[in-house]
Amino acid sequence: MKTQEMQKRMRIFFTGVGGQGTLTATTLLARTALEAGLDVVAGEVHGMAQRGGVVESVMLLGGWRSPKLDYGEADVLLGFEPLETLRALPYLQPGGAIFSSSDALPPLSVSLGKAVYPDMPHIMEKARQVAGQCHFVPCRELGIKAGSVQSGNTVLLSVVCSSGVLPFGVDALEAAIKKFLPAKLQESNLKALELGKAYVNK
Fold first, then answer.
1. What's the pTM value of the predicted model, to 2 decimals?
2. How many domains does the chain fold into?
3. I need a labelling partner for 79 at 20 to 30 A (CA). Which of 64, 106, 132, 155 fits?
4. pLDDT tens digits, residue range 154-183?
5. The domain spanning residue 184 has which CATH number?
6. Is 21 left (phi over 0), alpha (psi -120 to 50) or beta?
């Protein structure tokens, strides 16, 4: 059976903050899916050029016409910052899957003392109330271990690709890293990929 016949329609919502590389991660995963022979539509939903502003994007697999996603429609939520994961929960359909960094990047309002950052147990409990499966990953710590903080995003992508929820696996992500990332970034990102695989299998 051809890959196109096997693939199911799936909607993935990405969220993070400016400066984290959320859109770069979206592009890498979309290219991974394309290389795996899947129909892909991806696009930015909301983006703030300023560092710390919310960034949201979507990736739709299986023959969608436009990168549009409403509340309650996402099969998978990928959060690169835990507060933004919490804020994005309305987009996840009940029983969907959440993959999120557990490393906080407090917004300016928190830094200025005008708001309080919710604690991680609260964020995780709210996520588990909605999701069928929920994974919070120490992406920053593992990214540093791999050689760069930025490669923490690849750790998260590796975890979701290793989990079995997508119609392609971590081998496809590895091939995309080798094909699309600049040579100078490949070593740390391939190490991050291995750390993500190990995190899922521990």
1. 0.91
2. 1
3. 64
4. 999 999 999 999 999 999 999 999 999 999
5. 3.40.920.10
6. left
